[in-house]
Design brief:
- The protein is about 40% helix and about 20% strand.
- By secondary structure, the chain is α/β, with parallel strands linked by helices.
- It folds into 2 domains: about 200 residues, NAD(P)-binding Rossmann-like Domain (Rossmann fold, 3-Layer(aba) Sandwich); about 100 residues, UDP-galactose 4-epimerase, domain 1 (Alpha-Beta Complex).
- The two termini are about 30 Å apart.
- Bound molecules: uridine-5'-diphosphate-4-deoxy-4-fluoro-alpha-D-galactose.
- The site of uridine-5'-diphosphate-4-deoxy-4-fluoro-alpha-D-galactose has 21 residues, from α6 and β9.
């Protein structure tokens, strides 16, 4: 299938592009390189474009006879979304709408959308299912939920089939450690602990040690980027026979911030200076996924079920790219 990968030069998009090509699809990357890296895209067509550019999107979809669109081009910083909500609604909501409008005009009806655990807000449950109430508490999560709702309604017109995949904490490096995480600035826990282990930063701060969890730090469900990609492939295939797929993607097991730090120490063999700091605004104590729907309905099975295995791939990537991608 000819798949337009919006944000295909970013962390998850570049991994998806490689996986699509390896599975007999023809990905075409569409990216404005505001966050992504040209060096993360190999051997496929690349369109340097902005998602606000309706004409270019439409022309690209028509010229390449695109059959499906995958969307990885959102901003992802929760804190920044709180301080700059308009920026987030502009990119994550308005630009996604432009993509959907271009799809409708070009007659492309398959859409795979990167959604997030942030649509659930501060859930008061152990494992989160797709039915857990959606109460986003920041513009990031809210903008993703807005796009999901637009897809629900557009789907009812029969002009759209969509898969909304709600990621928990994406991490690790794909393609044998060749495609990894390179955000500027970096805010995610695993890369930051790795930077500390590499000596690229002095310490790692734990944001809150008084949460109602076993060791007082937040618990998250860390899912390897390759497992996200395999779920996207299955989601895309499912759209041949179904109109709507909504699934959580996590491994169903939570690890605390302290456990992540200890695992990086173990994998790297390096010590890491830990500083206990205040809570970060908007962090739920625990976010873990019930992903049984993806397993049942898509036949998805995550390959990386241990944090150590995941962190090994990230450690490998960061060590072979100590300054990130070259561009
Ligand atoms: N943390 C620290 N120190 C740091 C960085 C993070 O203690 O220097 C903690 C956070 O407070 C949190 C945990 O580590 O408890 C994980 O934080 P991340 O920033 O790595 O990830 P989040 O759980 O905040 O965010 C993830 C995705 C986001 C998405 C969000 C949805 O990375 O894109 O889940 O809830 F929006």
């Amino acid at each position: 299938m000819k798949v337009l990968v919006c944000g295909g030069a970013g962390y998850i998009g570049s991994n998806m592009t490689a996986v699509l090509a390896q599975n007999g699809h023809e990905p075409i990357v569409y990216d404005n390189l505001s966050k992504g890296h040209r060096a993360a895209v190999h051997g496929v067509k690349f369109v340097h474009g902005d998602l606000s550019n309706f004409e270019l999107l439409l022309r690209t979809m028509r010229e390449h006879r695109i059959e499906a669109v995958m969307h990885f081009a959102a901003f992802i910083e929760v804190g920044e979304s709180v301080s700059q909500p308009l920026r987030y609604y502009r990119n994550n909501l308005a630009n996604a709408l432009t993509v959907l409008e271009a799809m409708e005009n070009a007659g492309v009806d398959k859409f795979v959308f990167s959604s997030t655990a942030a649509v659930y807000g501060m859930p008061d449950v152990g494992l989160i299912t797709e039915e857990t109430p959606k109460n986003p508490i920041n513009p990031y999560g809210d903008s993703k939920w807005d796009v999901e709702r637009i897809c629900q309604f557009q789907c009812r017109t029969r002009r759209l089939r969509y898969a909304a995949l709600r990621y928990f904490n994406a991490c690790g490096a794909g393609q044998d450690g060749k495609l990894g995480e390179d955000h500027t600035p970096e805010s995610h826990l695993i890369p930051l602990v790795i930077y500390a282990a590499m000596g690229k930063r002095a310490d790692i701060k734990i944001f809150g040690t008084d949460y109602p969890t076993s060791d007082g730090t937040c618990i998250r469900d860390y899912i390897h980027v390759e497992d996200l990609c395999s779920a996207h492939l299955l989601g895309l295939k499912a759209l041949d026979s179904t109109n709507e797929v909504v699934c959580n993607l996590g491994i169903g097991k939570g690890y605390s911030v302290r456990q992540v730090i200890d695992t990086v120490k173990k994998v790297s063999g390096k010590d890491v200076k830990v500083v206990e700091d205040q809570r970060r605004a908007g962090d739920p104590p625990v976010l873990t996924a019930d992903s049984s729907k993806a397993m049942r309905e898509l036949g998805w099975k995550p390959k990386y079920t241990s944090l150590e295995g995941i962190i090994e791939t990230a450690w490998k990537w960061h060590n072979s790219h100590p300054d990130g991608y070259e561009d």
